[in-house]
Amino acid sequence: xxxxxxxxxxxxxxxxxxxxxxxxxxxxxxxxxxxxxxxxxxxxxxxxxxxxxxxxxxxxxxxxxxxxxxxxxxxxxxxxxxxxxxxxxxxxxxxxxxxxxxxxxxxx
Amino acid sequence: xxxxxxxxxxxxxxxxxxxxxxxxxxxxxxxxxxxxxxxxxxxxxxxxxxxxxxxxxxxxxxxxxxxxxxxxxxxxxxxxxxxxxxxxxxxxxxxxxxxxxxxxxxxxxxxxxxxxxxxxx
Lengths: 108, 121
Description:
The complex is a heterodimer of chains A (about 110) and B (about 120).
Chain A: E1 4-7, E2 10-13, E3 19-25, E4 33-38, E5 45-49, E6 53-54, E7 62-67, E8 70-75, E9 84-90, E10 98-99, E11 103-107
Parallel strand pairs in A: 2-11
Antiparallel strand pairs in A: 1-3, 3-8, 4-5, 4-9, 5-6, 7-8, 9-10, 9-11
Chain B: E1 3-7, E2 11-12, E3 18-25, E4 35-41, E5 47-53, E6 60-61, E7 69-74, E8 79-84, E9 93-100, E10 108-111, E11 115-119
């Protein structure tokens, strides 16, 4: 099973600022990585797949990058509505698919 | 627009069987090469993939749950279901159904709203 580790656990950013979230895989997964946003009481929402491809209707200020074992999600021009927990998920080769433990983004 | 909706009991007794259904609207469970997945989230914890099934292939399960789980697709009702046997308090979680794009594009989109299942006597 591939272990996904996210850091930091929490990031606090001022409105209009930038947040950089990290996700590390325990072995190389190519670009087989997705990012999700989860707000309190809601289901996760797909943001990014293929490490850097934005899902439908996701604003350009959400940018994914990386390959192999190191990945980042950068959120620019942060807005209050971006306050949420962000999860990464790997889907390399074959199941089980695994998720990181999440990074909480707080708006100061 | 594809929508998923979970249903089932919110309370299950320890050692009994959990059964949930996901109703699919806006598309057919037989369309494309999609997989129909269940994912759960224990209180305050991360997401755990449970498994998937699809209409013309074999299901796949998380090894951590394989001995207790079954997922099946009902094409006549356009829904899929989760069965988890011998539940314990550790199975208390919000259970989500989701569409998985199918190998090798196994990200989840969309998701159902989730249903909380509590295991307690």
